[in-house]
Structures
1.
Amino acid sequence: MRAADRLVTRTLRQAGVWTMLLALASVVTSVALLALPHLIGKAVDTPGQSLWPVLAAVTAAALVGCDALAAWASGASGARAAAWVRRRAVRHVLGVGPRLTRRFTEGDLATRIGLNAEETGRAPDSIVSGLSLLIPSAGALVLLIVIDPWLAVALAAGLVVIALILKAFLRTSTDLAAGYQEAQAELAGRFLDAIKGARTIAAAHSEEREAGRILHVLPRLRTHAMGLWRANADAAVRAGLLVPLLEIVVLCMAGFRLAAGELSVGELYAAARYVVLGTALGSAVGQLAGLARARAAAARVTELLDEPATRYGRSELPPGPGTLEIRGTDGLDLAIMGGSCVAIVGRSGSGKSRLAELAGRMADPERGTVRLDGVPLPWLSRAALRGAVGYAWERPAMLGDTVAGTIALNGRKAPVIRSAEHAGADAFVRRLPEGYDTPLARAPMSGGERQRLGLARAFAQGERLLILDDATSSLDTVTEHQVRRALSRDSRTRLIVTHRVATAAAADRVIWLEDGRVRAEGPHERLWQDPRYRAVFA
Amino acid sequence: MRLRARHDGVLLRPLAGRGGAPLRLPAGRGGPRLTLVRQVLGSRPRLLWALAGWSVVEALPMAALGIVLAHAIDDGFAAGEPVTGLLWLGALGAAWVVGAVGARQVVVTIAGLVEPFREALLSRVVAGVLHRADGDTAALARTNLQVELARDALAAVITVLRSFVFSLAGVIIGLAALVPELVVLILPPVVAGLALFAASLPALARRHRAFLLADEATAESVTAMAAGLRDVSAAGAEERIGDQVVARVDAQARAGTRLAGLTGARTLTLAVGGWLPVVIVLASAPSLGAGPGVVLGALTYVTQSLVPALSNLFEGLGANGVRLGVSLGRVLESAPVPPPRSVLEGGRSGGARLRGVRFAYGPHAEPVLDGLDLDLAEGEHLAVVGPSGIGKSTLASLLAGLLSPDAGWVLVGGIRADLIDPVNRVLVPQEAYVFRGTLLENLMYLGCGEIMAAVRAVGAEDLVARLGGLEADVDPALLSPAERQLITLVRAYLSPARLVILDEATCHLDAAAEARAEEAFARRGGTLVVIAHRISSAVRARRVLVMDGTGVMLGTHEDLLDRSPLYADLVGHWRIA
């Protein structure tokens, strides 16, 4: 937790001037809030004297002015602090790279960078607002005792009795929420089914019938929703009654003290206001709970920041054909000649993807070294490494703004169109509404089309080594054929993880993996003699 | 032939724009969105009256507060009659309890108004989305969430506006009963405060909207980044993608700061509308001859009723109004009102004729088809082959009338394809649509006939047995893709259509099952067009259309083996594999 607290402290410092301004304005607002009932009470008690009304007016002006300032400062400090935490988290996560996804799921990562960073950013506001809410609410209770201790006694007694009475009306509403969510889920499920079948429905002109099938859930949804509304209304009403009833209890007591001449009318007014202010103590504590949330959020962000960033060396690659050597890692000890095409085959779980990761330093081996043209991969600068190796996967992520942007993802000049042609993507890209400049959001793509853009990205980028991990699995036979032909003419070193016999047959050499180790290697025709090798493709 | 106009989406008629024309949404303006809200609320006048009634009950204790305090003090405690004072306060307590009942009913009544609103919106979304056979599935499904957000925002807007109106009325009535002159003195600053707020509202709405959009953009880019870490790292694109995400983060922070500035300024309008009246009461009430209890009552009205009411109005209206506008805009955008559809009678023959057909997905896109001529005689069996993304499905959609050509024409049975009665042709797409219901309902979706004969012909008897007969309930999520495709194939087989278009409709079946299904359709009679997933479909067809991006080539299998290098290549490759 100490690292998380350091993050919260640094966040406070980042918001800088705004935090100071927020603190100052909040304290003045609190004091003014506390002083105002007293001043108004004095003004009521001394009609004709202009001192108290003037003081009250000045205090009200200060209250409003500082409140406005606090609102501004709170928003601005939160925005700045959250942006600072987010920027740090974003850069750091990118610096660590895909290693993080082994510890955190994608959704979890997004929550930590998005929501949790923002909650951490709210720390300055929670601390200052919570503390400054304590001033008027705790102060009001103190002042109530100062005006007349009996009023405080009445308040305490009233609080217990009223809370007990209201609690008796409490009902639970957990079933309601469950039923509501169930109806929601069913509606969403039917809707999603129909969206996926949209072409069938459009062709049959059966939209109306389908709408009826989906909306069939509505009456049930409404029943549950109304139940939830009612439960919420009951809860809100109970909470809303507490303060006015407490105020009346205190007013009754104050009335008797007024009749006894122990209290002035102005003091009675002030007492009533202090009850209202004092009952805000609960929400002041709630504000401080916001700090607990910010600390918890900071702890979750810190877990990301604690992961050490991936380090790159400074070396450049000497001229070379792209020869790859993997030495001394468990079970893997191989050299791949520059410019050759190697297929990697094996049952699922045999370590194919692990080999693909190691070959281009998407992961570092625990032992041993991986060399490209004689240089250990960790010695290479990021630019040298990523410029030399191109990766394509079964499910590439479509990042970047446009189709061209997702092919040339790192923003460097790249042969976009030629790469797309080799990946069999050019024809379909040209048919998109804006061709290569079509924004990705406006280009709904099938799995096969996405794979082709992923291939194009690898072709455009890797100068010496291409690593394809099941990257043609969703292509139709025609396209796969075209891609295979383009690959066979390529002069770069090619490492192709595959399930398909034809791909293995077309490679110069096949590496057959089993349980993370090389079971055998050699030309496909020779391995094909082994029935266990043939079984890999069954 | 007689033109028969048909309007789909009857459910939604009351919500459609006038004359059924598609609603166009000008950015940022309220037009169609306001109309929508007004129509839904206006259709429930009884609830609106009930809402007004319960609001009066809810406002009762606040309206009575000042009067009660004045009497309790001046006639009771200060006059040495504490029992009278107690009675007044007791009455106030009772008023609070009655008011609480009112408050509860107000919430329930508002719920009764916004739930139908949600249903109307949902109906509209469902109909609108189903009428567009394209689009991003996930994004469309998210409109469900937008509908929920719109409902909550509408409830909040109604609550805030209504609460302000009735609180203000309560204050005015109460003050008028205590010191009528004060009403005249207090109203000008209240009106001035409201005017200031109204003046700032457009800017506030703009900044709120900007913030909301920036916030969503940030969340979106962060999510995309988290999902694509591997790709970013492999491409060495850390800096570029980082810059893009950070730019969004910074834009959001700027929008947040700008919004905070306006929020601060808005608080100042509260000074004019709420706190100035306090000073006015303090300064002028004694000179108007009011006793201490009356002054106190008047003050209570202002500090305990007027100030919170204004504060809630200023705080709630901006944020929720914008949320409502944005969510409604999104919903209406994703679900435009479907245009009326016309259907011509006739066209019973399954023959088709295409002349000079040109189609492109956008003005800057290369055309998918350009100058295509094709004749399909009744009873023809055609296979279409070519790499995916080349336009085979587009051709299927044009034949089925789901798309209209940019130039040239497509006739089916002598009628324009987009005007033909849907029973005359059937399109079976790759994504098999099976819905929750019985197997029989699913099979009879397009028409009925000899069901078990069709099941046997297509090769689905094992599936029917496994599911437990025709009356069994099916859950599409529990079926494999192949099983879903078998169901849609039986369904198409049962339809009376004379033109059947299978658009990779057998891609999840194994080769033997695919052959059995295709042969069944070939024997079924009528015209059969198969968009081929495997080259074997082409070998079975009488004629083959090869699409390879630069042009099309039509011929028999043997013919094309000679003439089309691509086709020969494909067939040769298929034989080896």
Note: Residues 51-96 of chain A form the longest helix (46 residues).
2.
Amino acid sequence: MNARAPQGNNVVTQSLAQIGNCGLFLLTLLAAIPRSLRYFRETVRQLWFVGAMSLTIIMVCGLFVGMVLMLQLYSVLSTFGGTSASGMVVAVAVYRELGPVVTALLFAGRAGTSITAEIGLMRATDQIDAMEMMAVDPIAYVATPRFLAGLIAMPLLCTVFCAMAVLGGHLVGVTWLGIDNGTFWSNMTAVVEVHSDIVNGVLFKSLAFGAVVALIAVYQGFTTPPTSEGVAYATTRTVVASSIAILALDFVLTAFLM
Amino acid sequence: MTDPVRAAPEDSTLVRVRGLTTVLNGKTIFDALDLDIPRGKVTAIMGPSGTGKTTLLKHITGQMRADAGEVLVDGQNVAQLSRERLYKMREGIGYLFQNSALLTDFDVFENVAFPLRQHTALPEVLIRNLVLLKLQAVGLRGAARLMPNELSGGMARRVALARAIVFDPMLILYDEPFVGLDPVALNQVLKLIRTLNQTLGITSVLVAHELEAIKQVADHVFLIANGKVVAQGDPKTIANDGSPWTRQFFGGDADGPVPFQYPAGDYAQALGFAGAAK
């Protein structure tokens, strides 16, 4: 596979070929899940790396997103005298869109790149071939645990992100701008629905985004040319492809789920 | 019922290559290559760079498929094995990578224990004893808790060797085991290869360029060039067999059957002098 960007007329063809190969790789990953169950400890280890180690960035970003959102909404809604609805709008925006999308983008930057670089370097230093030679299936031992870890970690991280964003909104809205605490929470609980906002937004979307980011990261790692330049290109491709896939998938999911 | 693809144990040939033909990116790497690797001996594969020595090892281990021909390991046709049987066969083969290929997340002990943990349900105490036994054999029991990035090139090669022999394999494949080693480390690796062959009777295949080192350990040498075996024989006498291939390779001549120039078009034309030459 060529590590360089496709040239000229080949862009569309090569992009389609990449998507097709990625789809076939997904089938290989899914088929390897039963074999990877014996590497449960490796999945837990990866869950720690991609999940727990991403908590700081997710929490900090979630807090600031909520704070900024509340500031902007307060400024706009105050012209209509509707500042009491700010908390509710922050919550709906975060649960339905910002939470899953921003968490997935951060996850791609923090965990996706790390997965791609790690697997790419394992290939470059023959560690993947060494596993093959020790009769250990690298798809079951290396790829699937990372894919599953991404799938499990994303909804959990998204939940933390949303909680921190609401907290950030509360800090700015109630503590700083003086919105009534009771109004803030009652409006929010009156409007936010478990199925359409929490299940469809936080859970369903983040699961889909987690699967896409983890798949792209693992695929890029496994198919990167085993050179330092190849690993660098693959890491960049993970961020670019994941970002486009997240935003495009978000549109599709939103259209179907609304 | 006897296995039709499995040879009788008394077969003196462990690896049999017949008519192996491989074409990579339009270049013929092997052209109906035939060779036999005897059981219990140390066999060296030599040849100019890019001649396909490592590719041959990949064919033996089933990492690569040939365009034609067959590779039989212990009587089993590698290309026809199912994934499960291929992995089972690999459990009986140790492979020493040129760059050692140690797992960088694990320390020395865990690297050697890795195959045992993956393929056995041995109690921890037995795994510990087996790993220490192998590390003692390569002289690195004291380095058991070092990480791969704390090892020198020679030490990493010996740890990889300990990992390769942890299952007491029937065959060990060494890919350029002497590259980048100082004389002390080179002699240590040489001693280990010889000891493993003599004490355990492990069949060894070495891909290397160092004739002096090969002379000390190998029983037989194959010189491969242009996709075929161009010379073979005793490592102590092969350099004097008189063929142009051995004369160039072992004499270190820059030009000869292996051309100095990579195949290219007309030089004058490339420099833009084609018109002036007329």
Note: Chain B touches chain A at residues 61, 63, 87-88, 90-91, 93, 95, 97-99, 101-104, 114-115, 118-119, 163 (CB under 8 Å).
3.
Amino acid sequence: MKMVNLKINGMSVTVPEGTTILQAARQANIDIPTLCYLKDINEIGACRMCVVEIKGSPKLNASCVFPVAEGMEVITNSKRVFEARKINLQLLLSNHRRECLSCVRSGNCELQKLCRDYGVDDEAVFDGAKTPSKIDDSATHMVRDNSKCILCRRCTAVCDHIQDASVIGVNKRGVDTHIGCVFDEPLNTVACVSCGQCIVACPTGALYEKDQTDEVWAALADPEKRVVVQTAPSIRATLGEMFNMPIGTNVEGKMVAALRRLGFDDVFDTDLAADLTIVEEANELVERIKNGGKLPLITSCSPGWINYCEHYFPEFTENLSTCKSPQQMFGALTKSWYAEKLGIDPKNIFMVSIMPCTAKKYECKREEQSVNGIPDVDVALTTRELGRMIERAGIDFANLPDEKFDNPLGISTGAAVIFGATGGVMEAALRTAAEWITGDSAAPVEFKDVRGTDAIKEATYKVGDLTLNVAVTSGLRNAKELLESIKRGEKNYHFIEVMACPGGCVNGGGQPLQPANIRNNVDLKALRAKALYTQDADMPVRKSHENPVIKEIYDTYLGKPGSHKAHELLHTHYTKKSRFQVE
Amino acid sequence: MSCKSCASAFVGTEEQDKKLRESIASLQGDHSLVQILQAAQEIYGYLPKGAIDVIASELGISSESVYSVATFYSQFSFNPKGKYAISVCLGTACYVKGAGEIYAKLKEKLGVADGGCTPDGKFSLDACRCMGACGLAPVMSINDDVYGKVTPDQLDGILAKCE
């Protein structure tokens, strides 16, 4: 690799050819500010926040897209650079609805931080006509408020390049330029998959999840309601970030303690339902292989993926596992088995789930996701919403004691906790399927080929006399590639895991926001996933079917995996839809 | 197919649909989206949502990606044109000679907004920039007929000729 020598602020730096000035500066521990730039997602040099002086060049240049050259001399911190950045910020503010006191992103807004850093004390200096806009709150999961949009295009880039939905884009031009859907129709009328990746990409308060914390506060205050909470596997690996803890800190014990202090009657773990999902899904896989059922079987835990499959690849809906997602299974079980156990009317149970995901808000409102008219889950909150509840309640999160989940629905296994990362569902299923097929309880526990954040992971396992071809992918553009290779007849798999968000739930659209200067420099997905794999390795029980509560539930209630009762409560169906003309 | 944002329901003929698909097939290739949009507008008189969806589907991109490009160019219209397509020049010369008032009066008389079409499909109204007849300002046109030195009190007479 050819190396290039340059000077940044008088310091010598040597970097590989092709490196941008922005990346080279980062290596010299200089953080050049950005707004539109997101590594590998949006590299368009549009916002001009990252401008720098290059000796010999009369104008300022955008460092995010400017490659280094031998002998180049770069200044990132001159008066001229600072002034240019400040004027850029003032111009952005001239068309920005400044309600920073109550904005959901206040204190966590990339625009606000830069205005503070660059001493923008006259924020109204360029005020004039504003681009007309209205708030789009039509979707179940999120809100778009273009009055706070700075047109950085990070949301449209992620929707197109990463998630292959491209339901939002840049409409019109000049002062009328805005982000919107086709014909500027509301978001709920287009084939949005509800993944929320646009929200975590947004630097300002223009995009945010539909806040449902008030519904939860109301339920907690209602003496008639038994308010039960479940937490998804990945929340324990990310919630700490809401309280400035290092990325990848496992805060399971403090999370449980905080939920108890918020007043939830039962603090349970979605992980138990992840174990249940594995038992049902492994059974489904073995049945489909034995009885010549539709293969490959594709996992159904990720509701963003389900939306994508229904709208963009309806020909694959029969491949989807009929298993409900762990969130929904948990709700169904709580409002049946647990309600009966307690002797209370399921109508009086208020089921709250804490999810890494905005699509979960959509999933729990789907008609198919209820039993006898009672929704399995009443409210799905994102990790961010839970963080805000804890903050409002004045709970000193970092200093909470570590507490344990309640019994019985808080008991789980190592197989369940890795559900939160790409490859986790596959590995958990393989642990159980391998033992069932071979009848050998010493069957392997770790399947490392399916771990990691590669776009598409493939593996072949010999299980008894069966050869099992599996594939794992995350990010919907990667899923598209995988499905198309199957359609072209190039690939032949038995079992596929798809998660909508790149890296899986640890990187979900409901997870804590990290600014671009963090996202561009550390691998969030890998750091967060590591917390889950570490927990798995330390757990005494690492196979879903060995979960003692799962055994009890089958023995006393469901019968066996795939039973009539299991189907009634734990399975669902899908609908073929179109990516056009969604009404 | 219908579109909520358009005043009148979109009814495309099978022949139009066939023509559009032929145009896409002949123009398909890199950087051809604008030509395809021009062809579609030629066929339908404007860009209906149904046509945008067909283009997106044939090119394997999203409808929004097509719409995004189309809205960048002022040459594309998303509203159906009436049997009588009225354009009022709002260029500098016409504007100082009172074209703004002509345009406002027409909106009022026809009961339509910018770029709109009457519910019976008879009239559509657009503003345009310079027809190259500044000496006749203010200028308006109905289909291919140009009217010069228009005054507000002539409008009823001009519209009455359209049957």
Note: The first strand of chain A starts at residue 3 and ends at 8.
4.
Amino acid sequence: MADHLTSWVLALVQTALFVAGAPLLAGWLKRVKCRLQNRRGPRLTQPYRDLLRLFRKELLLPEGSSWVFRAAPYVIFGAIVLAAAVVPLIALRLPTSAIADVIVLVGFFALARFFLALAGMDVGTAFGGMGASREMTVASLAEPALLMAVFTLAMSAGTTDLSVAIQRILSSGLVIRPSFVFALLGLLLVAVAETGRIPVDNPATHLELTMIHEAMVLEYSGRHLALMEWAAQIKFMIYAALIANIFLPWGIAVGFGFGALALGAAAVAVKLALLAALLAVSETLLAKMRLFAAPQFLGFAYLLCLLGMLSHVILEVGG
Amino acid sequence: MSTGGAFAWFEAFLADCRGENLLVEEVAGPAGPARCLRLDPEDWGAFARLAARTGLRWCAVWGEHRPPRIVVSACLERAGGYLLARTAVEEATPVLPSHTPHYPAADRPERHLQDLLGVVFTDHPDARRWVRHRAWGESEFPLRRDFPLRREAPGPTPPDADYPFLRTEGAGVYEIPVGPVHAGIIEPGHFRFQAIGEAVLNLEERLGYTHKGIEKLAEGRDAEGLARLAGRVSGDSTVGHTWAACQAMERAAQLEPPPRALALRGLLAKRERIANHLGDVGAICNDVGFAFAWFQFSRLRERWQRDNARVFGHRLLRGAVVPGGTAVDVSPQEHRELAGAAAALAHELDELVPILEENASLQDRLVGTGVLPRETAERLGTLGYVARASGIDRDVRRDAPYFPYDRLEVRVPVRAAGDVAARLAVRIEELRIGLELHARLLDMLPGGAVRVPWRGAAPGAEGLGIVEGWRGEILAFVRFGPRGEVARYYPRDPSWLNWPALEVLIDGNIVPDFPVCNKSVNASYSGHDL
């Protein structure tokens, strides 16, 4: 019973870590990117200051917007926080990941995106609708690839429970499986598209006509905008944690001892920092691609995930 | 005035005009490199038809209210020789055939004239208002003499809600209005897209949001005041416009600035071109999400402009060119510093440019995007790097040279592809050439004074200034009034002829590629709206 309680407390703490740590990860990414561009970056804590500033600012509602516009930030933030609860960050065997498996995680993302697109269209500006249409185009191709990567994992592990799956991977030791390599590559591409990073989308742009994600939140201000940005940061961290813990699970805490948890926290911090640095390098090297190249990019991601599953079926099943 | 080679075609053209029964007469025109023809108003359109057939390039049209008549002048060019066509209409019946059917480039300049002076162009294909939003009434013409220079502020301008934009209809066609207020800090302009999905069907520009009344403000100024005003036509071309205006005034007053001043003007123009190209090269890359180039080139531009501020007193070189010479000089110490900074910049470019040229993801976005075919560029009379990237080998500094360029060999980079990549390549090449010329001008800088005192021009004296600004050919017309004050000033920024090219080159592209196409042209809003 005590163990049960601890695990629930840990699950809550872990979710809180997602929510609290996401701006830090965003700050780190920004800082590494700045260094790579020969600039002095902002402080690591700058995203927190930005969020605080937005929370304090006056809230402006565009003329003619409905309750969808007002509700969307809360729905999106809520869905993303729930999604974060499902993903193991520092410890496995948490009750939240037993309740909701990885398909639910994809569902949470879809829910958030649905409301984001609705909110974009709700204000009735050309940009909101344009952003929503582009986001849905990208999502309709990214989601199958994401699911395919998830299925590869699930087939290997024989479960869609992330905790259990990761534990199986851990216990099987360091084996390079072709299916995982393909799925990892595919998931990396999906993550870039889903979190609105270069080369699919440019989060730093001021050019309305080129925006995808930003176009939908153009009309948001104050705490609404803060929630939207915060949710985007958490989503980014979820993807990073997924990739880090599924494909490089070593270090994650299996037991609930203090030492194991501390090691788990340190390990995931290092892994996330490295992943973000990797993204910063690729964002510095690449220009954003033409919008119509995004389907090819995601088609390639899907193909990689599919190859992962095939190679699992051919090479690993029964082996 | 009539230099042999540049006007080799002139006599034959004059004979053609007479062969077509046009009443033309060569008259004394404004001081400058142009020959002037007086025409009958009825022949105005037929003249344009003949000129277009003969291969003359259309440059500008402007008018002046000299009660009871309105004098309209059009400037054309061929092989480096400029031709000024003039006619006059009665202010009560200011009707004139249009040049637009023969020269599409004349479209907006004529509408500008229609809004500001009330000249009606009979066979103009598009008689909608252009520069007039709703700040003044339909029957008011600010450039007429009876329109007061200073009057009570008319209050807030009502929203320009009823402008009849072009419409496209059909299933799946939708409209994207962009601007005049943008998400970034850029000049205001409105762009109306008709699109199917992401494909652009049509783009219509609506400009005029930065109309400052430059032409009206010029009335009654002295020479120094006009030079200051010319420096504010377009902030990034302050040297180009001031030089053109000063050249026009100096020609009208028959005043020859000292050679050192003219060489310094050349140096300043180079510095202006280099600063703008540095900024734009970075910005073009940034518009396709390649931020690395943006920060590197911004850094270079910043250092360059700080040198401007230190040596010439203004980051954008405002106020450096004055009637009779320049207001700035370089000491031997500054001379060495400028040369050193330019050499360092050349070195940095050698490192940075290959990074841009070899980045496949960047080139993928630029090659084949926003193609302006050569024939279209010719037809629209496009200028500067936009023309040169579409295979048009044109540069005033080489074709109709003025000191110091008549002493220098000006290489003109030309590319055939006409896409964003070609415009970027031309700009990068111009950066290199600009740095070479910068060094040559520093080397050849003559000694002596940098300024001769301004002496008033004779009443009614006119001058035409034509220089190559960083965007392309800048033309300035100045006429002095009876007391030596400025009676009329018309600056023709190259943007007038480059803005329409943007509407064409976006054809067949997708909506999110518009910003990079726009940036690769980078026409001036302010220089166009006047």
Note: The interface with chain A takes residues 174-178, 182-185, 198, 285, 287-292, 295-296, 299, 359, 361-362, 364-365, 510-515 of chain B (CB under 8 Å).
